[in-house]
Amino acid sequence: MSRCGSTLISQTLGRLPHVLSISECPAIDAAIQAGRAEDLRKVVGALSHRDGGETHLVIKLDAWHIHDLPLIRSAYPEAPWIFVSRDPKEVLESQLRSPGRLASPGAVNPHALRASLSEITLLSREEWCARVLDGICTSAREFQHDPLGMYIDYRQLPGAIWQSVAPHFALPHSA
């Protein structure tokens, strides 16, 4: 979602010796924006070639990629996924205090955010950010019944990493 603990999750899972974790990679974003599952598979394949004994791959996407979940699922139909959320008011306050890309009109292609080009100039930064967050939450709700999906709330962290997320991804771990 943004400012929701997803970085904590990806970095923590990436510390497991058999896990390669890739976070918000621009090349993956470009492949998703291109709209072709084959391009996404090629980019992920190129990025995931390692010789460190990794057997599992965790990819943390940008918040706006929830809009493209059908494309991602077509590229990886068997892959489990999670959506991490937080109270939208808290996210909005955080984004307004210290703006990330999605809170800065024009920093991300409006099409990727499911917004129009005209909204960049018509909406205040606060309205823009609220609209983007609303769109992300709306898209997330559309996929709530996907059997390979899991929804994690910020308040469940950090315990949910080991209690829910790691088992959902079939990541072996010990105390």
Key descriptive features of the protein:
8 helices, 11% strand, alpha/beta, 175 residues, single chain
Structural notes for this entry:
The protein is an alpha/beta fold and 175 residues long. The chain has one domain. Helix content is 46%, strand content 11%. The protein is built from 8 helices and 4 strands; from the N terminus they run αβααβαβαααβα. The chain has helices at residues 6-14, 26-34, 37-47, 69-75, 88-97, 117-122, 125-142, 159-168, and strands at 19-23, 56-60, 81-85, 149-153. The strands form 2 sheets. Strands 1-2 form a two-stranded parallel sheet. Strands 3-4 form a two-stranded parallel sheet. Helix 2 packs antiparallel against helix 3 and helix 3 (37-47) crosses helix 4 (69-75). The longest helix is centred in the C-terminal third of the chain and has 18 residues, at 125-142. The chain is globular and about 50 Å long. The mean pLDDT is 93.
The SS-based structural class is: alpha/beta
Strand fraction equals: 5-15%
Name the helicity range.
40-55%
Query: Could you state the order of secondary-structure elements as H and E?
Result: HEHHEHEHHHEH
Counted by DSSP, the helix tally is: 8
| Residue-averaged pLDDT | 93
The rounded Rg comes to: 16 Å
Largest sheet: 2 strands, parallel
Tell me the domain tally.
1
The coarse overall form would be globular
Give a quick summary of the entry:
The chain has 175 residues and is α/β, with parallel strands linked by helices. The chain has helices at 6-14, 26-34, 37-47, 69-75, 88-97, 117-122, 125-142, 159-168; strands at 19-23, 56-60, 81-85, 149-153. The strands form 2 sheets. It has a two-stranded parallel sheet. It has a two-stranded parallel ribbon with strand order 3-4.
